[in-house]
Design a protein that fits this description.
By secondary structure, the protein is mainly β. Strand 12 and strand 13 (186-192) form a beta hairpin. The protein is globular and about 70 Å long. The strands form eight sheets. Strands 1, 5, 6, 10, 16, 17, 18 and 20 form an eight-stranded antiparallel β-sheet that branches.
Amino acid sequence: MFRSKVSKARGTTGHSLRTRQLVWLAALTSVVALLYGTTTAPPAMAAAPGAPSGWSTVFSDDFNGAAGSAPSSGNWKFDTGPGSGFGTGEIETMTDSTANTHLDGNGNLNITALGSGSSWTSGRIQTPTANVGAPAGGKLEVTASIQQPSPASGLGYWPAFWMLGPGQWPENGEIDIMEDVNALSDVAGTIHCGTSPGGPCNEGTGISSGLRACSGCQSGFHTYAMILDRTNTSAETITFYLDGSAYYTVTEAQVGTATWQAAFDHNQSIILDLAMGGTFPDAACGCTTPTASTSSGGTLSVDYVAAYTTTGGTGSTSQALPGTWTPCAAENATCAVNGTSAVAFGANGRFNYTTATGSTPCTTGVFGDPASGVVKSCYSEAAPPATNIWSPCAAENNTCAFTGVMTVAYGAAGSYRYATLPGGTPCTNTVFGDPISGTAKSCYLMAPPPTFTTWTNCAAENGTCSFSGTHEVAYGANGQYFYGSFSGGTTCTNTVFGDPASGSVKNCYYQ
């Protein structure tokens, strides 16, 4: 019965201003009470919990602020427009009005659906960038304390707390942490990936727990969470939790390594929304929603949203930037290149790529944010298929085989997409997207690191890498490197970095 979103531009809203507001004028409050009945605003729960031992907080919002105000523009942006264009069958119009989305003054975000029949408004907010991800060897937890909408008649209500990767859906990856439909007081956890329709992730339905009973979820706040576990990068998992208890797990083996990596081995945005109508609520009831009797003013209340990561002991990932790349700009500066070049943007082994001619701004606006909270840089290299730099490794729909972690370019005729991947990859549109439609493409492989033309060898394994100021340090050998940023130097040991190349004698390099 479970049906999910074909496209993730859905809308959401919070508690009705007409039913939850504590600061409106008394006369207006009286009118509201007549329209919707008197209610009490949900009390704020505790602040977002601090990071557990061994974890770090990478995002947090307690939704503190004046009653009736919009959520922090530093943490959230509005997605607006008609739901009919979202590909999910929903019928509301998403707005940036505080009538639909506002803080209640008690530490909650309220998203409210207003309307009747086929005319509804609601709201959706998401983090401005893809700001949270699990590092290789580590974990990501994304959690929220939420009270589900409780309208008198709820057919068509579709609240959601979810995540979405940058790029083309569904191969960019989607994780639905909490969904309910038709005010059933249920919960479903779902992933989306691969191709649509069908594919390894059964799109457009996804791989899902299905709707499960969520007792008391409309009358009080409950915690909904997801943990993406990459501690074993060849056997990764996503597990869904309700009030701290795991209820559903999806594994990398269920969808295949290439599909999983393309969907979940990168940062994603966090999204809160409240849609009206659509494929999921319609399928759940076997009817068309909303109906003439669906109540206006139902509200999704959110006390906090937080994200935490572990580092796997490295503070970085095993995604290595080949050392032949040349630094061309610090973050927020301009990377100038000769002719057409491949440009990588990031730090600590996490990079996003583009192909630039002449120059490109070195900003998250251009590249997205591959390493949230870290000062990043741009690096340039001659674009493929430049000889002596990029090695042809596969024609389209074949496998580019290699060992270690490498940068792979996919495309033709000056149009390429890039990924930093371990141990080989299918050379397909499913993995990379289609950089040049209608043209036969190939994969090219960057020579394995390190040639380190821009890096300084600073210590052998178990020695001390010393320098002044703050530098990025690479530790490893034979194409396998872990990265970290350090001030004044660091010991060059597995204890500090983890072991990127077990059994090999390693070195430290800095730049």
